[in-house]
Structures are given as C-alpha cells and as structure tokens.
Amino acid sequence: MIRVTIIDDARIIKSVSKIEGDNVLMAWAQENEKSPGHCIFSKQGEILDIVDKDNIFELLVRATLNYLDLQKIERGYSRNEALFPELVKLGFEVKDGVCEVDITTFFKPCCGCK
Fold it and tell me: Rounded to an integer, what distance in angstroms lies between the CA atom of residue 57 and that of residue 12?
C-alpha cells in the first residue's frame, strides 16, 4: 500500500527537487523502500511540480489538495503547463494560463454518489 506523507523539511525537499523556499512543501509517496513519486507545492495552494514514476498522479494531487483543504486553502492551482492535461482530467480548469480547482467542491461526491 502506498502512503503519502506531507514533508516540510527544506533539506529533504531540496534533496529531490530544485524547487525550494520557505512556503514549499512536498507530498511524498512511499511504498516499502521505494518512492513512486512526489508532488511539490506551496502553502498557498500552487502545485509546482509532480514526479510520477508509477501512475500515482491522481493520488499525489488528491493528497496535496486534502492537505490544503485541512489548512483552509480554498483554491488549488498550477502554472506548470506540463501538468495541465492530467490536472484537467481530475476536474481542474484552465483560465488565463493557470490550471485551477475549487478545493471546497473537489471532494464533494457527484450526484450519483451516496
């Protein structure tokens, strides 16, 4: 089973990503001794980069948005155009060069779900 942990230690983030800063976090996926990927994001809700080695893109995005939702962030977004096609599949919309989603409605069930 894959477990996703939110990491705020800048040294760990820097060891796997060129993106760094005081407001940067990482959703780190772990399965046994391997990591199938991670998502680098800001505390303000911006998804900066996703490394997906084992088809876990959706898991990483959901874990990231769940963390942001718990922090009372209402909007998730990305300016990284390479991520747009997969984000759109998950319900994000592209507006003026930004791919975004309302987190408060992202996790609500569809009309057919109970």
Answer: 20
